[in-house]
Recover the amino acids of this structure.
């Protein structure tokens, strides 16, 4: 049993150390879990339990009535008369008998400090002095108890025999010594005077105190770990043997104490001492007593180890419960955040795809609208009615200008005609633009675009609100003139077909004749200049121009319309350069504004990803910690199984 005892004790101490080491290193765990575990103070309680277990021994407390033979029995057990004995009441101190290779005695005060350390031998003088100290006849200030170390094999195996003063009727310090030792007792020997059944009535006082200590949680003594020894059995007549034995058992039971078979023993310490001194073998009663005592001590050790395992198991179970609860919450949070991350990723993808739809859809619509408008304008300027009106107005103005003294050559006439035609064409374009509401051609589309993006914004806002992050989103705005103005590097306003537009870019042709163009985007190529030059050669004199002014103006206008600057493609290019590009830029601006809002989800997604990474790390740390604690609990159960096999 001794080897198993030492091995199991070492395993329990190691398990305590492993648990303490794990509880000390909580840094890998999340801060809130660390705080919870630190508030639980399990580390401090485990340290205290480990210290108490490693320092305290399996105490077998011996008590009884005064002069019942307690000290004599202990002297007999250890094989030497080290403890003082007396038939009279004396003020003796508690003595702790422990194993050591070296014989010595330590005098301990009430705080646990050593007053004196005495090495002693078997000489009568040393023993007498030690007995005087224990009896109190040689006073030692502040002395509370005496630790006596003996090289006695029966004390091996973490066992301590505790000799307490005889219990008294009244409450005294000696009685308190007994009760204080019972708090830590693993086994209890109560010595009874057989010749008078002395001390049985005092068991009631002990029992009441033990019940109170048990209720207060200060008692670990098991009722099965108690032996009642009837000493002085040699003074009982053989004929009265059974009657006296039953009477003593009956008296104990009358005090409300259950006495099981084998718990009440007969013994004569005086007789056994004489036989020991004469070198004779022990009696059967003593052998039975020693056997029962060994069983009792074995049970005491077993119960002590079992209680340690039970405490550790409960502490670990409580720890596992706390960590499991946190782990479940952490996993739930991780799952929710992962699902939210996946949802956000899908939202970003779907919203960006949805945002592309208005951009592509409405840009195509605008292109179709302005393609039709450019064709209509092209055809309108070439209608007979429009051309006649332009020529009529130009003739009227040129008739007045021909009387201008500054016009003295055909070159002057051509310049004046071109300027007048430009002015009239621009006026016609402005008039046509107003009549066909060109400025508002895309108003409905703009509303549709804003409606589409507003619906997307509402969808985005709802998704953010559903995730617990309500966002205030700004609505898209229709671009103002200031927003849509295209800067060309000059101070001119180059927007095509806008109110009060006055565009007059003068191009220098190869023939050196300035030709007025109807719009900034309509450029007259070299080929057209040659055609006009050829027509100019037919204008032989100024009088010829005046005489054939209608024809000359018609030729000039027709030549201009037939140039590349006034083709359908060039008209569309004019619209494309201004209106279509402006609209495309505006819708791209709306798209980019919405993408900025989508990026808010991306920012949340980035934060969420960081939190998920932290959660994953925390989850791994908690799982590792939980695995260690569960292993400790398994080790505890394994050790307890070994204890049960003792």
């Amino acid at each position: 049993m001794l080897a198993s005892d030492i091995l199991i004790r070492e395993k329990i101490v190691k398990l305590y150390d492993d648990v303490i080491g794990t509880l000390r290193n909580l840094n890998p765990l999340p801060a809130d879990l660390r705080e919870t575990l630190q508030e639980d103070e399990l580390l401090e309680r485990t340290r205290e339990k480990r210290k108490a277990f490693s320092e305290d021994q399996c105490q077998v407390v011996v008590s009884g009535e005064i002069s019942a033979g307690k000290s004599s029995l202990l002297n007999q057990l250890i094989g030497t008369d080290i403890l003082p004995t007396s038939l009279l009441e004396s003020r003796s101190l508690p003595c702790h008998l422990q194993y050591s290779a070296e014989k010595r005695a330590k005098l301990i005060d009430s705080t646990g400090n050593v007053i004196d350390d005495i090495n002693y031998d078997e000489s009568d003088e040393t023993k007498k002095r030690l007995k005087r100290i224990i009896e109190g006849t040689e006073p030692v200030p502040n002395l509370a108890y005496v630790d006596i170390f003996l090289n006695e094999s029966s004390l091996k195996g973490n066992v301590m025999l505790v000799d307490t003063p005889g219990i008294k009727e009244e409450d005294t310090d000696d009685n308190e010594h007994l009760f204080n030792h019972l708090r830590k007792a693993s086994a209890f020997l109560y010595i009874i005077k057989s010749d008078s059944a002395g001390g049985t009535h005092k068991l009631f006082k002990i029992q009441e105190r033990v019940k109170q200590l048990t209720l207060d949680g200060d008692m670990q003594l098991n009722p099965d770990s108690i032996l009642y020894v009837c000493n002085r059995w040699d003074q009982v007549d053989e004929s009265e043997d059974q009657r006296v034995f039953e009477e003593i058992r009956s008296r104990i039971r009358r005090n409300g104490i259950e006495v099981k078979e084998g718990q009440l023993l007969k013994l004569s310490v005086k007789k056994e001492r004489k036989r020991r001194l004469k070198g004779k073998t022990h009696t059967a009663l003593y052998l039975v007593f020693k056997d029962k005592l060994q069983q009792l001590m074995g049970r005491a050790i077993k119960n002590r180890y079992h209680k340690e395992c039970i405490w550790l198991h409960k502490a670990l179970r409580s720890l596992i419960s706390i960590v499991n609860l946190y782990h479940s919450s952490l996993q739930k949070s991780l799952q929710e955040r992962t699902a939210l991350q996946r949802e956000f990723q899908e939202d970003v993808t779907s919203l960006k795809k949805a945002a592309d739809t208005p951009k592509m859809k409405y840009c195509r619509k605008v292109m179709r609208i302005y393609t039709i408008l450019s064709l209509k304008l092209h055809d309108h300027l070439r209608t007979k009615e429009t051309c006649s009106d332009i020529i009529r107005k130009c003739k009227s103005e040129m008739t007045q200008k021909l009387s201008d003294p500054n016009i003295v050559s055909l070159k002057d006439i051509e310049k004046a005609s071109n300027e007048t035609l430009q002015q009239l064409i621009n006026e016609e374009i402005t008039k046509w633009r107003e009549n066909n509401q060109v400025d508002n051609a895309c108003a409905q589309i703009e509303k549709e675009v804003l409606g589409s993006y507003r619906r997307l914004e509402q969808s985005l806002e709802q998704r953010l609100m559903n995730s617990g992050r309500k966002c205030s989103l700004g609505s898209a705005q229709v671009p103002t003139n200031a927003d849509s103005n295209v800067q060309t590097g000059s101070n001119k306003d180059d927007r095509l077909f806008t109110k009060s537009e006055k565009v007059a870019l003068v191009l220098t042709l190869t023939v050196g004749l300035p030709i007025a163009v109807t719009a900034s985007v309509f450029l007259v190529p070299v080929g057209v200049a040659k055609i006009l030059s050829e027509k100019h050669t037919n204008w032989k004199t100024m009088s010829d121009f005046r005489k054939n002014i209608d024809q000359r103006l018609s030729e000039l206008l027709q030549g201009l319309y037939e140039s590349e600057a006034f083709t359908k493609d060039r008209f569309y290019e004019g619209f494309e350069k201004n209106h279509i590009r402006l609209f495309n830029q505006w819708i791209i601006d709306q798209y980019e504004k919405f993408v900025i809002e989508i990026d808010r989800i991306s920012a949340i997604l980035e934060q969420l990803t960081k939190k998920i990474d932290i959660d994953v790390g925390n989850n791994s740390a908690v799982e590792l910690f939980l695995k260690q604690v569960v292993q400790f609990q398994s080790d505890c159960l394994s050790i307890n199984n070994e204890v049960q096999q003792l």
Confidence is low (pLDDT under 50) at residues 469-539. The chain has two domains: 56-282, 344-482+495-610. Residues 522 and 565 are 5 Å apart (CA to CA). The first helix runs from residue 2 to 24.
